[in-house]
């Protein structure tokens, strides 16, 4: 839910907003209300709302000054201004401090809900971008740690080196432990034992990790469709590929592509 605060010196206006707007449908929770700008500022610092619906002309601290002090406090707030004053200076001051909309009273519920839907949509979009950014940082950190681990545990065994080279050269094909072992003229069980002992992972885990790494490289190019990338790294079932990709990176292939758009 997105938190909102109502600031207006008219009790009936505050009551009317609380009772007549479809807050829950809009995904908004009213966390407080205030009858003047000074109290509104205190409530904003206390509850840290994402939306403040405010009047302009109020005692102690007017709406414009309250908006300025909220912004000075570095709160990320979208203001919706409801005012009985159509004066250009008021509107200019409201816009200066980030008002998403300046509406003249009396405000029709449909109009206010339309504005709220727009503001909620923008906030939701910003949250998604922020979440993807955090997930991307986490995925990159995991990838770095895995690379470090792989380097530290790189095998001195020629057999493992041959197995790794074979996997790198045939990852786009159907790979099985038996097929890799056959290339090395050893048994599948001995291959699995060598991998576990020298690489500290299973053959399947290594193949999957390498394929996902290659898939990320192809997806970053944004040349191929996701099902094409799936096939290019050895997975004919793109849904199964999507599951493995999300397990490895924390993102679906589509989310991963979006996260690389600004690189």
Percentage of helical residues? 55-70%
Please trace the helix and strand order, writing H or E for each element. EHHEHEHEHEHHHHHHHH
Which blocks of ≥5 consecutive residues have pLDDT under 50? none
| Broad structural category | alpha/beta
Q: Widest sheet: strand order?
A: 2-1-3-4-5
C-alpha end-to-end distance: 30 Å
How many β strands by DSSP? 5
Number of helices: 13
Give a brief description:
It comes from Paenibacillus spongiae. The protein is of the alpha/beta class and 263 residues long. The protein has 13 helices and five strands.
Overall description:
The protein has 263 residues and is of the alpha/beta class. The chain is 63% helix and 11% strand. It contains 13 helices and 5 strands. The chain has helices spanning 11-20, 23-26, 37-47, 63-72, 88-96, 109-152, 158-170, 177-184, 188-199, 203-221, 226-232, 238-249, 253-259, and strands at residues 2-7, 28-34, 51-54, 78-83, 99-104. A 5-stranded parallel β-sheet has the order 2-1-3-4-5, sandwiched between helices. Helix 4 links the parallel strand 3 (51-54) and strand 4 (78-83). Helix 3 packs parallel to helix 4 (63-72). It is rod-shaped, with a radius of gyration of 29 Å. The chain starts with a strand and ends with a helix. The mean pLDDT is 86. The modification 4-aspartylphosphate is found at residue 55. Pfam families: HTH_18, Response_reg. Residues 161-259 form the HTH araC/xylS-type domain. Residues 3-120 form the Response regulatory domain.
